[in-house]
Amino acid sequence: MMVAGSAPAGEPVHHDLRVTLHPDAGRIEVEDRLDLPADVPRELELSLHAGFEPATPTPGVELERRGTHHRGVPSTRYRVTLPGGRRAFTLRYSGRIVNPPVTGPRGRQSTPGHLSSEGVYLDPGSRWYPRLGARNVTFTLRVSRPPDWRTISQGAALGQAEGDGWREDRPQRGIYLAGGPLHAYERATPAAHAAAYLRAPEPELAERYLEATARHLTFYSRLIGDYPYAKFAAVENFFESGFGLPSFTLLGPRVIRLPFIVETSYPHELVHSWWGNGVWIDYDSGNWGEGLTTYLADHLLAERRAEGAAFRRQLLRKYADYVDEHREVPLARFRARHGEASQAIGYSKGAMLFHMLRRRLGDETFLEGLRRFYEAHRFRRAGFDDLQQTFEAVSGRALGTFFDQWLQRPGAPRLELVRARAQRAGAGYRLRAVVRQRQRRGHYEIRVPVAVWTEDGDAPIEATLEMSDNRHLLERTLAARPLRIAVDPRFDVFRRLDPRELPPAFGALYGARRAVFVLPGAAPASVRAAYRELAEAWASDDDRIVTDATLETLPDDRAVWLLGWDNRFRGQLARSLETAPFALDAESVRIDGARYTPDAHTVAVSARRGRRPLAWVAVASAQAVPAVARKLPHYDGESYVVFRGAPPRRVTRGRWPVTDSPLVIELAPRERAVPALPPRRALGATTSDATRAR
Ligand SMILES: [Zn+2]
After folding, report:
1. I need a surface site. Which of 304, 615, 619, 634 has the fewest CB within 10 A?
2. What 3-state DSSP class applies to 148?
3. 532 Cβ contact list (under 8 Å, min separation 6)
């Protein structure tokens, strides 16, 4: 998402733009005829990229230069005075627009506007066309470009003999222009035109995108309401980006070729067509767009593979790993992602808000609410309060407490199953269990699912506790002997997970407030130096880097990274992983039955020492270290990863089993494992979809 517009006043301005691109010189030439709505005064102000020097051929129009802004992209303000009765005028200008992309976190690049022989990307922030404050626009755009180029903007293609043309008649917050030397692939679908633009002729890659576009557009149009644009295009950018723009997405050359993208970030960007680029986000009350898009794209795709609970556990894990308990911020304060912590609030907590709302209202009412919200607010700004009003109207329920609790209050509830006991009672059994909220302050009004497995029956008995206090006593008479009770086994409640609910994973170390890196004193100097570099790459200001020889024991107050095959403390790892399929001796390590050796393998293993996370990283050679430093953070949800060779390629990864969750109590000894929870029907799925697992 790129544009955070403030309140646009009145009707949109219409731009009729003719653009000529001179890529080698980085120059554009523009003629723009602006049609003003009646509420724009005769004396108006507009701003344009600095150095464009506009002139007007329209008789009687005065153009006066007011001053240049240097913050962000330099732009110049002009005052335009129109003769009485005139509502349209033309500007002509040309100039260079050259701001080479800069690289940010995770290798993502960005620029507000750049034109070179590589390609063009112009976003509204560059003021490549004259902007009247934050007023909305409609437009037609005709582009002359080199013969092997294609350019893309919002809306429908104009179909013209030379160059490219685009038209959008519904209000937009700004105009984008992207393109370069591209090959176009297109397909008609019932929902909208699908297109893929690639920098090399790659029909198979294009087919993957066209097929996915058609499938996702059809599914989401049926789920939410008609797709709001004439086309959706996957466009290969000339720099590494992942932009979701109105009616197209700009993906970098590396990202667009990752095989999993068409089922992960691509549908996410496509669903932003409804949430963000269809209904606009009123940022004043918080950004609901990322939570809702994550819920309907990433979460729903997981749910359709019967992996909804695992996905939610992952969302909660990110929150537990990266959001410091002492620095939690309310969801209403989230605007955009600035790192793992803000993402865990805006995306994870946001998605869980919509999940809890759906659980509370039921699938049909929830979908009805989304459809009405979309219908009522399309091409307008809407906030969380509009969502609340819509869902109250469709459900007939007051949702003030629900929205306040999850939007305004920082933090998360914590749950614990304090005790549970079953006794014979007549012909059956009496089950009594106590569930508590353990967060530091106050209580939450939450609906807590509980599952009880009994001696008969394939599926557990499921119930929901309405918790409106810190303590809840569950009493239930059961016909068969209960074997196990589990609280929130499908991770339906937004809450701070207890570390014991999760397999140990590297994320707990990356998110830890303080860590110590323990270098192997016995390793050769070159290897020790490589480990020190690794530690320096990962360490934050509060972390320490020490050598094992200088430590008597490992500290208890922080996360611990043990580095090296010959680290003096590596025995600690085996003690911490007693119940896991893990063994360590002088020559090798065994994980899940496979054997790995120091000469060939780079091994990373995470564990827990009391309440603190512990990890061990041992590289095959000093040469492998830079790649491991880069790669391991991508495995933050895993318990272990093994690489082989240099550059290191992944051999295996996995998670240790969870054996001591404080939300599960075994009530009776049993011979067999209890059956798994049956998957729920995915949102919007018909009965036949539910049985046809994709
Ligand atoms: Zn997003």
Report:
1. 634
2. coil
3. 519, 545
Q: How many Cβ atoms from other residues are within 10 Å of residue 58's Cβ?
A: 16
Q: Token pair for residue 374?
A: 């979309």
* Separation CA 677–CA 490 (nearest Å): 8
* CA 272 to centroid of ligand 1, rounded, Å: 7
* Cross-strand pairs, 435: 417, 472
Gyration radius of the chain's alpha carbons: 29
User: For strand 515-519 and strand 544-547, is the pairing parallel, antiparallel, or unpaired?
Assistant: parallel
Across-strand partners of 559? 515
pLDDT digits (tens, 9 = 90+) for 114-167: 999 999 999 999 999 999 998 999 999 999 999 999 999 999 999 776 789 999
Ligand 1 mean position, distance from CA 275 (Å): 9
Taking 50 as the threshold, does the pLDDT of residue 479 lie above it? yes
Which runs of consecutive H residues, i.e. helices, occur in 525-581?
Answer: 525-538, 571-576
Pairwise CA distance, residues 77 & 87, whole Å: 20
Q: How far is CA 485 from CA 1, 470, 489, in A?
A: 43, 19, 9
Other Cβ atoms closer than 10 A to 522? 14
The rounded Å distance from CA 229 to ligand 1 centre is: 18
Contacts of 54 (CB under 8 A, 6+ apart): 48, 63, 78, 91, 92, 93, 130
d(CA 395, CA 482): 36
pLDDT value at residue 685:
87
Chain-centre distance of CA 181, in angstroms?
30
Q: What's at 218, amino acid-wise?
A: T
Q: Which residues surround ligand 1, an ion (CB under 5 A)?
A: 290, 293
Report the greatest alpha carbon distance in the chain: 98
Q: How far is CA 122 from CA 26, 116, 179, 347, in A?
A: 12, 11, 9, 27
Q: Which two tokens stand for residue 633?
A: 């953070």
Residue 262's pLDDT band (cuts 50, 70, 90)? very high
In percent, how much of the chain has pLDDT > 70?
Answer: 97
pLDDT of residue 691: 42
Distance from C-alpha of 213 to C-alpha of 220, rounded to nearest angstrom:
11
C-alpha of residue 1 to centroid of ligand 1, in Å: 7
Amino acid identity, position 496: R
For residue 144, CA distances in Å to 99, 152, 165, 238, 446 come to: 21, 12, 9, 19, 58
- In this structure, are residues 610 and 589 in contact, taking their beta carbons and an 8 Å threshold? no
Backbone angles phi, psi at 98, to 5 degrees: -130, 105
Tokens found for residue 293: 């898009």
